[in-house]
Amino acid sequence: MSDQKLRLPAEEIYAAELDVLSKNDDAGRPPNWQLSPKAVVTYLLGGKAKDGTEISAKYIGSRRLIETAVATLATDRALLLLGLPGTAKSWVSEHLAAAISGSSQRIIQCTAGTDENQVRYGWNYALLLAKGPSIDALVKTPLTRAMEEGTIVRLEELTRMGSDIQDTLITVLSEKTLPVPELDISIDAAPGFNVIATANNRDKGVNDLSSALKRRFNVVVLPSPATVEEETVIVVKRVGEIGANLTLPPIEPAEKELARIVVLFRELREGKTLNGKTKLKTSSGSLSTGEAISVGVSAWADAAYFGNGAIDAQSLAPNLVGAVVKDPVQDAVALEEYLENVVRTRDEWNDLYRAIRDVM
What we know:
By secondary structure, the chain is α/β, with parallel strands linked by helices. It contains 17 helices and eleven strands. The protein has helices at 10-13, 15-23, 37-45, 63-73, 89-101, 116-119, 125-131, 142-149, 163-166, 169-175, 211-214, 228-245, 255-270, 289-306, 313-324, 330-341, 350-359, and strands spanning 47-48, 54-55, 78-83, 107-109, 121-123, 138-140, 152-156, 177-180, 185-188, 194-200, 217-221.
């Protein structure tokens, strides 16, 4: 069996940068932190270590927001990263955990099927039946392990989880302890323990957080990229990184084609052209930066394996249609209008117009 991983965690991909920052970091560190708060911000936003080593940017956005997030985690307040789908909430969460705790692997993916045992603790029922409740029969979750180790635990898509399950976190966030009544003990959090949760504020099929739980979080809202240029830089960077990690065959530089994805998504997302002169129907999907990155990676694979080795209209078209048309009625109408009123009128987009028409 191969020991290779399809997706490496942040702490492995950027191990060299984390090591350089740690060796050159003489600022004060909170208990059990691998880096000082300033070094964590440098790791996320890029810059230079004290020895001059260049640190790559993991997140392109407001420094103030990242500083607020890091400062929150240095206190006893939990952090909630809120924003539209595709605004890099999970990405930021992973890198924060990697930089602070040295591991981003203490993670709970919240879903409608997540139950209390997956958040607090469970039981090995064979041992439970044989010996009754005991420490040996206790099955620890990522949350309880993070409490014992004094590390960060990540709760992805917190509002996907039922409200009653969400509220099991209140005691942990307030008292930094988790009672185990069956054993008459408590699991106490070690210094350095904290929680990073993510939630999107667009998805309607979610469970709102109770007021009591909201008060335990400091909320940082991650916005969508402010400009087309900023979003394009993000998409080009992430497509390159993901393609390299997947060892996709090299292709010609694709900045121009990836920029077209960004413009198309942005106009359909905002319901108007960039110049504001034409109003458009919006798509039912989020058409986020994250989805633009996915389309770019898929187009890369298409172009590399079945095309001419360069992302073009032919490799973009089927992936664009698949990303836009989530609702076969509403989204098809929105895309049809956009094609006829916008794409068709742009001479430099004639190839894209014909390619999309061929797959619709």
